[in-house]
Amino acid sequence: MQWENNNNNKKKHFILVHGAGHGAWCWYKLSSLLESLGHHVTALDLASCGVNPKRVDEVRSLDDYVHPFMEAMASLPPDHRAILVGHSFGGIGISLAMERFPEKVAAGVYVTAIMPKACEPMINSMEFFKRDPFESMLDTTFNFGDGREGLPTSVLLGPEYLAKKLYQCCSSEDMKLATALIRPTGLFAEDLTKEGLLSEENFGSVKRVFVVCGQDDVDLQRWSIQHNPPDEVVAIDTANHMVMLSHPRNLCDCLLEIADKYH
């Protein structure tokens, strides 16, 4: 894959990383808007997501899961810097890319996303599940591949959960698209609770921006910001969790402002 040098070019490169169960398809509105303005957009399918051919049971580790993304980052030339945009669980992926390729990242944008802290586990599992317990997940299905005494190994978001918690501000067409395309996602609890995956030297050197969506779980977003303050916080007050589908123009405007400031 060939990339042009964008250091002195007004065109920006946005790499979009989806959340759990989703794929590159969820960015179709935002991708179209950014590309219509002349920017480069890469929307990725992580392993076992979207049209990626792997099954969830074949993706055994966090490294396996983000491998397509890390390959794309490795293919960028040394003088090419991209804006990484992670949505929800996609915050994990962009954090790993910021750690491994800090010189290739102009900024990491966390769109109502998991935002880990350097030198700590990716997810504080007790805090995470306390704030978003299993019973709040409605008809979502958890698979306990290592036995029910442990944490779940994968998750499949249910249609009721999608409709009531994620897609409540989206069109019926987008909801229909989601129910047709959602796939199970690995949770990688063992990897995510390890310390030392992110360092201050690499991950901590990259600018971070958090995008708050006012109709999503605001308490969880605010906790993430307070626990690990980013360089900037912006808000889209009327947006729900799936902001790229319900408010693509607002999100596009936010990303353009971020790119102009940090690129």
TrEMBL record:
Residues in domain AB hydrolase-1? 15-251
Lineage: superkingdom: Eukaryota
Q: GO biological process: what's one of them? A: jasmonic acid metabolic process
Show the Pfam families listed in the entry. Answer: Abhydrolase_6 (PF12697)
What Gene3D superfamilies is this protein classified in? alpha/beta hydrolase
Q: Kindly give the InterPro entries that the UniProt entry links to this protein.
A: AB_hydrolase_1 (IPR000073), AB_hydrolase_fold (IPR029058), MES/HNL (IPR045889)
Q: Kindly list the GO molecular function terms attached to this UniProt entry.
A: methyl indole-3-acetate esterase activity; methyl jasmonate esterase activity; methyl salicylate esterase activity
Signal peptide (residue range)? none
PANTHER family, per database record:
METHYLESTERASE 10, METHYLESTERASE FAMILY MEMBER
Protein name, entry field: Salicylic acid-binding protein 2
State the organism named in the record. Answer: Acorus gramineus
